[in-house]
Amino acid sequence: MIRAYFNAPGYRAVRFDASPWFEMAGLNDIRRLVDKKWSGKPAEKAAKGVIEFDGYTELYDTLVWARTHDGIDGAPLEPEYHIDPADGLAWLAYNRPEVHEAILTEFGGDVAACERSKADWADPRDPDETTYLRCTEERPAYR
């Protein structure tokens, strides 16, 4: 399982498994994801790929809502997409070692860099797990 997160501000957040996308993604797609710190447009592409591959209804509904609504005061909505780098790297090491090696070679120590300050991650699978990223800052209230 590769834990991932999608948040449509003012609507809802969806936590999902991104591993189906990692199964079909090419090396260049995964490179772009790591380069964008496991967030942004490449993570959005992964979310959309999971929908096509697995048909996650809740994720699909949230993506449609985000695409058809504006943010606060009519400003463009800025949804957040994040993929857990530790899960992604572990999955690649086990399931696609050649891609894992290429990523490590290209990005070195920055391979696990991510948008930690923005991430609002789900509860860890194991209550004793402390490595799962969580937002430590209070998120603004949306009206």
Textual characterization of the structure:
By secondary structure, the chain is α+β, with helices and mostly antiparallel strands. It has one domain (3-112). It has 6 helices and 3 strands. A 3-stranded antiparallel β-sheet has the order 2-1-3. Helix 5 crosses helix 6. The longest helix has 15 residues, at 40-54. It starts with a strand and ends in a 36-residue tail after the last helix. Mean pLDDT is 77; it is low at 117-143.
> What spatial form do the alpha-carbon principal axes imply?
globular
Q: Record the strand order, biggest sheet.
A: 2-1-3
Helix content: 40-55%
Low-confidence stretches: 117-143
Strand-pairing-aware structural class: alpha+beta
Please give the largest β-sheet.
3 strands, antiparallel
Instruction: Give the quaternary arrangement of the chains.
Output: single chain
Structure summary, number of beta strands: 3
Question: Ends: how far apart?
Answer: 34 Å
Count the domains.
1
Overall pLDDT:
77
Alpha-carbon Rg, integer = 15 Å
What is the overall number of helices? Answer: 6
Topology as H/E string? EEHHHHEHH
Secondary structure elements and pairings:
Blueprint: E1 3-8, E2 12-17, H1 19-24, H2 27-35, H3 40-54, H4 57-68, E3 80-83, H5 85-95, H6 97-107
Provide the descriptors you would attach to this structure in a database record:
single chain; 143 residues; alpha+beta; three-stranded antiparallel sheet; 6 helices
What is this entry, summarized?
This protein has about 140 residues and is of the alpha+beta class. It has helices at about 20-25, 25-35, 40-55, 55-70, 85-95, 95-105, and strands at about 5-10, 10-15, 80-85. Strands 2-1-3 form a three-stranded antiparallel beta sheet.
